[in-house]
Amino acid sequence: MTRILGIDPGSQITGYGVIDMDGNHAKHVAHGAIRINKKELPDKLRTIFEEITKIVLEYEPDEMSIEKVFMHRNADSALKLGQARGSAITACIIRDMKVYEYTANQVKQSTVGKGHAAKQQVQHMVKILLCLKEIPQADAGDALAIALCHGHSREGILRMAAGVKGVSRGRLK
Question: Which residue blocks in 10-167 are alpha helix, DSSP H?
Fold first, then answer.
């Protein structure tokens, strides 16, 4: 079994989701949203780093998945998003956790079956796939979708890795 932390980064709200994957079976562990109430960007980045660190220490994930930055219409927003991603990634890699990145279209394709699915479709499928009682808050739902995308993609990654460098008991080396 592999525990996966999914992150939907943002400079105002960063969503997180934790799932356990056993083969193709996903089990919900936790999810939530980190609300960043700071005004200055360095303070926001510190909050993201500290809160992701707490989540990593509490749930002890094996791998982390995060959404890739896409170009916003506003370059300043894209830069802030990239810095938020960097804070979240750093909180994981300093604990030697593998980090995997997925585009929004890859996440939608993996959860809904269509790369251009509506946000509501993704959230509905997250609820169904993880047997949740209700649809999670938007950012947390996106983070769970990112974790599911990696959970479903990692089987293919494992098969490819087996041909290249070997695999040890269902875990990437």
Answer: 41-59, 75-93, 104-111, 119-129, 138-164
